[in-house]
Every structure is written in C-alpha cells, then in structure tokens.
Write a structure and sequence with these properties.
alpha+beta; 4-stranded antiparallel beta sheet; 4 helices; 31% strand
Length: 216
C-alpha cells in the first residue's frame, strides 16, 4: 500500500458520486453528499459491532468501475477496494465498513486490523470479507467467496468434530481458496490442524463440499 494515492477524481452527479483511480484500480464512490446516503442492503453478519450501532448513520458505496479494471482478477480488485477503503476509513465519523457480497458489516477498527494484516501478507479476512451461515441440515456454508473465486464452501456436521472446529476448518479453507482460486476437480487436501479432507465441487461447480477423509 505504500505510495498508493487517489487520482483522476471526477464528479459524476450532484448526489456525491465520483469516479477515480486508487493505485491503478478504477473505482466509483457514491452517496458522499450530505443526505444522499447510498442504497445498501441490510447486513446479516456483524463483526465487532451491533446492529443498533448503525442507527442514524448514512452510507457511502465504493465499487469497481472503469476500463482500467479489464485485466484485473476479482481477488486483485478486492485487494484494491480493501486498500482504498483503509485510506477512507481514517475520515472522521466513520463507524463501520460493510462488504455486500458477504452481507457483512465490521467495526472500522476491526476492518482496519484484518484488512491491513491481509494486505501485508497475512490471512484473508474470512470473518468480514466473507461470512459463515448455517443452512438446512446444520450445513456450514460460506458467503462472499463467490465474488472472489466463483465458489462457496460447505461443510456438513462431522462426527466427533465440534461446530467451532468445523468453523475454523472452513476459515482455513476460505483462506486457501482466496489465495489459490477455484477448485475444479475432486481432491484430498490437508487442512492445517484438522487433517485430511475430501474436497468435491458440486455439479454446478459453484459450491465445494468438504468432508473428513477416511484416511485422516
């Protein structure tokens, strides 16, 4: 992030929408004018902030935009958005940062910590730029990874494995997929701290099912 800056700031409309580049990434910011809060869906997952902590707030929306991103991978774009958001969250009165693909919202300080660690070479913010939800059958499913690698992960209950450990295994797998991309073929993988898992894409290729390997 060192040396990155905003450039080419151009006003799009009077409601506070601007186009610009940050570190070579083309972006659009909307809702910056007082009273012109950007329309964002209600978050479902909260990290270090309560729902009532958002009462009375207004939102600005930062999104990709422009031909400069034509050859940029989804992961690179997310890194660019995270870096630009870090630069913006230093503004006075910033309370929270949301990430729409994961339907998540984070306290500004929490976001700054996990995003900065990731951009400095640490783990992907699996609880923030992704989230975990429980579907029918107590299946643990990620949300937000589709925007990065085109797939979500799912882990059904595993005999002898606590739910908290199942979530930790999911977080490690999210970090792997953020760094290595989509999984196209069935495979057996070692998940640090949890042994061998079978990894199987479904018929659509949009969801990856993890199950304990019988050889673990």
């Amino acid at each position: 992030m060192g040396g990155a800056s905003f450039s080419g700031l151009t006003e799009i409309d009077e409601a506070g929408a601007f186009s610009f580049e940050y570190d070579g990434f083309a972006m659009v910011l909307s809702g910056a004018a007082p009273g012109a809060s950007a329309r964002t869906g209600p978050p479902q997952y909260f990290f270090d902030i309560r729902n009532d902590g958002l009462e009375g707030t207004e939102a600005i929306l930062l999104a990709p935009g422009g031909a400069a991103n034509d050859n940029v991978s989804p992961l690179e774009m997310v890194r660019g958005l995270a870096a630009a958001t870090l630069a913006l969250t230093g503004a006075a009165h910033c309370i929270a940062v949301g990430w729409q693909p994961a339907s998540s919202v984070m306290n500004c300080d929490y976001f700054a910590k996990v995003a900065r660690e990731w951009l400095d070479g640490g783990p992907f913010p699996a609880l923030g730029l992704a989230s975990l939800m429980v579907e029918d059958g107590d299946v643990l499913v990620s949300r937000g990874m589709d925007a990065i690698c085109g797939q979500e992960i799912a882990i059904a209950p595993i005999a002898g494995m606590a739910n908290a450990d199942r979530a930790r295994a999911a977080i490690r797998m999210i970090d792997y997929m953020a760094n290595h991309g989509r999984i196209r073929e069935p495979d057996t993988m070692e998940i640090d701290g949890f042994g061998l898992f079978e990894v199987n894409p479904d018929a659509s290729g949009k969801k990856i099912y993890l199950s304990r390997s019988p050889f673990a």
